[in-house]
Amino acid sequence: MLLQNVACSAYGWNEARHRLGSKLDRNLERLLESEWWPRGEIDSFQDERVAEIVRHAYEHVPYYRDAFRRAHLTPDDVRGVADLEKLPVLTKEAVRAHEAGFLSGLADRRRLVLRRTSGTTGTSLHLYASRDAAALQWAVWWRHRVRFGVRPGDWHANFTGKIVVPSEQEAPPYWRWNLPMRQIVLNMQHLTPAKIEPIVRFLDGRRLAFFAGYPSILHAFAASALERGLTLSSPPRVVTSGAENMHEFQRRDIVAVTGAIVTDQYGQTEACGNASHCERLVYHEDFEFGVLECVDPEPLPDGRVRGRIVCTGYANPDFPLIRYDTGDLGVWAPDGRHCECGRSSRVLVAVEGRVEDYVVTPEGRRIMRFDYLFKDARSVKECQVVQTDRRRLTLRIVRRDGYDGRDEAFLRDAVAEWISPRLEVDFDYVDEIAREPNGKFRAVKSTLDAAA
Ligand SMILES: [Zn+2]
Fold first, then answer.
1. What is the DSSP letter of 303?
2. Is the pTM of the predicted complex or chain greater than 0.70?
3. How far does residue 343's CA lie from ligand 1's centre (Å)?
4. CA distance 74 to 68
């Protein structure tokens, strides 16, 4: 136990050195100022940075030099954000196929950090980030937290998928201290109703500033606590999540247990774009870090548009990603809409997750979110919507006590009313819903394209 605490702290110290160093403080200070810039200043900043990264990529990065030449483009053709559309969209596949080709000739390889990420298929993608890029990314993430009154150095709980306390351990402590990072680490394997009571009691006595984690892992904590009728009497000020979509059933349970503000940010390991909630829980593009383009826009009511989130990051010139297709969909507010918080950066109304995560109805409608189905189905602990056939839908459900035939009838009616009366609904009751190879929870899974 003691050794594990030490190992955990040692890992934390190395991380802390480059996460929480003076570079982080300086970056954070700058970001807390720039977030209030007027729109004109934001636009010229982004135009300048885009032109700069494109020129750098053309001159020093083999992949782009070839790609731009093939497209008969030179850096003079890209003077700002509006010119990005002249460049081809970069797919994950292309990065995977040419990994070394994305390294800048100017990069100091000893100062690069390897990052691995994987798609839903589990195939891994290797990227490099400079320490400067990592420090800026961490500052962006910290700015999000600062908006809710927490500061670097505040004690917090980190809910993780990494096995910190071995799964087979059957007695508390189900947590580890990480002193340099000032965090208590809890891994998801122990967030079960059987083990949740000592965990809730332990956390409740700590006066933690915030909880952080994937929505699905924070939700595992909340759902288990609810099942045992437990809530926190001294809750954290805020719960911050990221890396997956937060679904309404998850938010509902997390709020019920913590009574805290639940806030989210959108970003990727690829470190080329980010958006974070403001105090009004509205996503703002973190424009100092990269551009989030809306590609293949589909108009929605009230001037909103839905499109693919394509990112150009300018914080990582050693391994630049220009017009990188994240595979996620976003919904943008009408241009020029001002958020009540007073910031002028671009606003996203929603981040809808991966492009393949939708259901197609027999009428041909595409449906991405199912939150409204489960809003009133309180006996549903977790649900995944699965489609393998155009005429059928399977609701894979983890039930709570009290779930009965009425819930099934309610959900069947709700699908008929909200999605399609022509869809057959099957129910698949399970003890748990498996995570993807990358550890993430998927609320919608469709195999339709593969089947076709
Ligand atoms: Zn705002």
1. G
2. yes
3. 6
4. 7
143 Cα to the center of ligand 1, angstroms: 13
Q: Are strands 380-389 and 366-367 parallel, antiparallel or unpaired?
A: unpaired
Cα-to-centroid distance, 347 and ligand 1 (Å): 8
CA of 253 to the centre of ligand 1 (A): 24
Omega before 173 within 30 of 0, i.e. cis = yes
CA angle 92, 352, 372 (to 5 degrees): 150
C-alpha distance across the termini of the chain, in Å: 52
Q: How many angstroms separate the CA atoms of 417 and 421, rounded?
A: 6
Average pLDDT over residues 107-113: 85
How many other β-carbons are positioned within 10 Å of the β-carbon of residue 146? Answer: 16
The bridge status of strand 183-187 relative to strand 156-160 is parallel
Distance from C-alpha of 386 to C-alpha of 393, rounded to nearest angstrom = 6
Give 428's strand partners. 396
DSSP string of 357-409, one letter each residue: --EE-TT--EE---HHHHSS-TTEEEEEEEEEETTEEEEEEEEPTT--HHHHH
Q: Which of 231, 240, 226 is nearest to 259 (CA)?
A: 231
Question: pLDDT digit string (tens) for 39-92?
Answer: 999 999 999 999 999 999 999 999 999 999 999 999 999 999 999 999 999 988
Rounded to 5, what percent of the chain is helix, strand, coil? 35, 25, 40
217 has pLDDT over 80: yes
Tell me the residue type at 140: V
Q: Is the pLDDT of residue 452 over 80?
A: no
State which H helix or E strand residue 266 sits in. strand 261-267
* CB neighbourhood size of 173 (10 A): 16
Ligand 1 centre and the CA of 344: distance in Å?
8
How far, in Å, is the centroid of ligand 1 from the Cα of 292? 16
The residues facing 382 across adjacent strands are 398
Q: How far does residue 173's CA lie from ligand 1's centre (Å)?
A: 40
